[in-house]
Fold Putative acetyltransferase NATA1-like protein.
Amino acid sequence: MAPRAVLLYLSFTSPPVPSPQTFFVTQFPLPSPITDPNEADFASPLDDGHVIAGFVNCFSNYSSFLAKPGLYIEQIFVREPWRRKGLGKFMLSAVVKKAAELGDGKG
């Protein structure tokens, strides 16, 4: 099973141009800008002016119960300034959607 990366892009503007990497882009509706005092510490490694708000760490697995491949969610984290805005639920929903698109698990 090939490694998979899921990128969630949060922005008031349009999403970035897709790269050759395997990922999908989806947008999270932010009602207003977020005040993030540690924004510089969590800047995107792409140096594109974006900030990392959180992550979901998941990997491919195989369900003996379902007898099919799936995605196992190991960790989910949302940074403090971004919490209580629905981002965690949004990230989990995005992983479930991607698993369903790939034909994995219960999606």
